[in-house]
Amino acid sequence: MSDIAVRAEHIYKKFRKGEIYNSLRDLIPTLTGRLFREQELSRGDDREFWALQDLCFEVKRGEAFGIIGQNGAGKSTALKILSRIMRPSKGQMFVNGRLSALIEVTAGFHPDLTGRENIFLHGTILGMTRREIQSKLDQIIAFSGIEEFIDTPVKRYSTGMFARLGFSVAAHVDPEVLIVDEVLSVGDYLFQGKCVERMKEVIRNGATVLFVSHNLKNISEFCDRCLLLEKGRTVTIGPAHEVVSAYLQRSRKSPNEERASGPVSISSARVHSEGEFGRLKSGDTVWLEVEVTARTPCTKLTVAPWMTNEANEIVFETTTERLGCGNFSLEAGEVYSCTFEMRLNVTSGIYHLSVLIYRHDTQTVYDEWTAVATIYVSSEDDVRGTAHCFPKVIHQEIRPSCSASCVVTTGDAASQATELPATRVCL
Amino acid sequence: MKEELKELYQYRELLYMFTYRDIKVRYKQSIMGLLWAVLMPALIVSAGVIVRYGYAFASGKRLDVGDVASVAVKSLPWAFLVSSIRFSCNSLVTNQNLVTKVYFPKEVFPIGAVMASLFDMVVASGAVTVYLLVTQTGWSVQLAWIPLLLAILVAQTLGFGMILSAASLFFRDVKYIVEVLLTFGIFFTPVLYDVRMLGNKGNWLLLNPVAPILEGFSACIVRHQPPDLLWLAYSAAFGLTSLLGGFVFFKHLEPAFAESI
Predict the structure, then answer these.
(1) Which residues of chain A neighbour B18 with C-beta distances below 8 Å?
(2) Which distant-in-sequence residues (6+ apart) come within 8 Å of A70 by Cβ?
(3) Considering its fold, how many domains does chain A have in total?
(4) How many percent of chain A have pLDDT more than 70?
(5) In degrees rounded to 5, what are phi and psi of residue A23?
(6) How many separate helices (H) and strands (E) can be counted in chain A?
(7) Closest CB from B17, B171, B258 relative to A120
(8) Is residue A148 situated within a structural domain?
(9) Close Cβ partners of B125 (under 8 Å, ≥ 6 residues apart)
(10) pLDDT tens figures, B115-155
(11) How far off is chain B from A103, nearest CA to CA, in Å?
(12) Which helix (H) or strand (E) holds A289?
């Protein structure tokens, strides 16, 4: 048995734009029209487009492989070909082992059947046997968290319940090759956490996973290797964090053309780090170099860098003025440059660094570069939220309910535990 | 072909679940529930009684119990044929979500639709059995033909079900053509009448591949005679060809389903 689980060999997929003939009534006039008008035929060619071109990759057994790219890059087409729903126009796809696809987790549900019946229906659609489902039934129901409504027709479910039940069934298929397309974004925050845990478990159990998502954080967290698609073509394949940063660099917005013609403009902005740029960790330092060129004389200028997270919320923001450098004035043609040093005390996630220049007394923004760099910060500690406070548990104990003093301690804090004031810390 | 059949066998549980779903869903939230399975053939029988009465009146004979029994026996397979063709023809289009999203052998849709209709026929045949017992039609060894007749009927239906479901996925016109054919098909099929009522010319009607089966049912259940073997062989050959041809046709088009629906 080879250790290759999935192999794509020069896959091409062609689609036709526009309407395909869905009724004879449309087809007949077109066909007769073609007999008389030759140009109809030549027009047919530019109605074709390639959704995938020369897609080649190999995924090893037990590997987690990500596919990223913007909307319309061909990710879903690739998965559909992989899961044999579509046939490639050219090329071949090999899959070794039982394959299961989490493409649309509620596709198999019938609204009139109860939750329990739908578990069986959807489970068999995903390739489980009824006996297998029966043995996992309690697990599936418990995972979905809708025990109470399991014998209610699913048409009475809320959207969230519907999706949760769908994912629960799908998550309990034990495939050798699992294809996941954007399904982890199901349900509320808590349920999403559960899904992520379940996915990790599947990966730990040795399944090969192909993962398509817009959530780059999930991709960097799960995947060993990654493939970046752009307009159906492979841009790069490599270690996940490298491909993710390559993707982020490519999708960087271009400088604002309109403002660049104003009195002052940002002529360059660069971010660099100590080590490899793609491998930033919480607590690392980055430098932001900004260069400003004046076209006409300007006064009271201030440069303001800021950082936003994936949800576009401002995480951090400051200005040269607030940092104590005062404001500056430029004559026509003069260039001002400055470098900000910043520590990334943030939790793992994706952050955009941006910069703008403005006149601080009138609050006039002259130029603005959003997402000068988009960085992925990883963290070894499982901390959530935005700020990373580098927490440590330095003491914990459980105090017995009776008066008998008996102190439970863990780790190297044991010796100090008895001396420190007794506070109950979570275990 | 062998590979494809093996795969279909692997997905037999899914076929069972689709059949179960179709049966269950059809009678959910309906007051009459399973009685609907009997109602449709019952309507055909009453139409048949009117036709038979008219024929008896014109020829100056009495309407006998056997005539009604014959219509009852033939109405079941006809109702089965109509409902399974109608259901399977739409089965792919109505399950668009599954066709484009999940991989499995798609012929489980038309096959499941036929199986669900077969279940209806079994339910309705209970009512017909009661009628036959009450009218003391009796029984004979000829009843042993029933499984064969049924198998040929199912083979024909499955074959056409697969062809029509795939065809209607590409051209929605197929659905309308099928509706028209099913509505008027009853005039070209000996359901309400017997072939022998038309004399020698009646044999032309047996070219309709369903006709020998219906006549066969009537012969072996009501008249206790073996079916006309020559015509039955014709029907069987037709059934086998349509089943194989339908499967090959379906499988040939299947890879294009997801992008053409």
Answers:
(1) 121
(2) A230, A251
(3) 3
(4) 81
(5) -145, 155
(6) 11, 18
(7) B17
(8) yes
(9) B76
(10) 999 999 999 999 899 988 988 887 888 889 999 999 999 99
(11) 6
(12) strand A285-294
Residue B14's identity, in one-letter code, is: L
Could you read off the pLDDT of A60-83 as tens digits, one per residue? 988 889 998 887 788 888 888 888
**CB–CB of A24 and B103 under 8 A?**
no
Q: Which single residue is written with the structure tokens 């982890």?
A: A184
- Amino acid identity, position B156: Q
| CATH number where A9 lies | 3.40.50.300
- Determine the Cα–Cα distance for residues A247 and A16; give it in Å rounded to an integer: 28
A23, A113, A129 ranked by CB distance to B25: nearest: A113
Q: Which tens digit of pLDDT belongs to each residue from A407-421? A: 555 555 444 444 444
CB contact under 8 A, B17 and A130: yes
Q: Flag the least confident range among A171-185, B51-65, B186-200.
A: A171-185
Q: Which two tokens stand for residue A117?
A: 């019946």
d(CA B253, CA B162): 11
**Contact A108/B98, CB-based, under 8 Å?**
yes
> Considering A206, A230, A248, which residue would you say is the last residue of a domain?
A248
Q: Does this model's pTM top 0.80?
A: no
Q: What is the SS3 assignment for A291? A: strand
Read off the pLDDT of residues A303-338 as tens digits, 9 standing for 90 and up: 999 998 877 788 999 999 888 888 889 998 899 999
User: What is the domain partition of chain B in residue ranges?
Assistant: 2-254
Range of the domain at A418: 392-427
SS3 B30: coil
Query: From the list B24, B101, B256, which residue is nearest A113 (CB)?
Result: B24
The distance of A142 to chain B (nearest Cα, Å) reads: 23
Half-sphere exposure (Cβ direction) of A106: Cα atoms closer than 13 Å: 16
